[in-house]
Amino acid sequence: MRLAGKGTVNILGVVFDDVTKASAADAIIAHAKDGGTLAAVFTPNSELVEQCAEGDGTLTGIINSAKLTLPDSVGIMKAARMFGTPLTERIPGVEFGEEVLARAAENFLPVYFLGGRPGVAEAAGARMEAKYPGLSVVGTADGYFERTPSAVAAVIAKIAGSGARILFVCLGAPAQEKFIYENRRALEDAGVRVALGLGGSLDIYAGISRRAPGLFVSLGLEWLWRLLREPSRIGRMAALPKFYLRCRREAKKRKKQSRRA
Ligand code: UDP
Question: Which atom of ligand 1 is nearest to the CA of 47?
Answer without folding.
Answer: 23
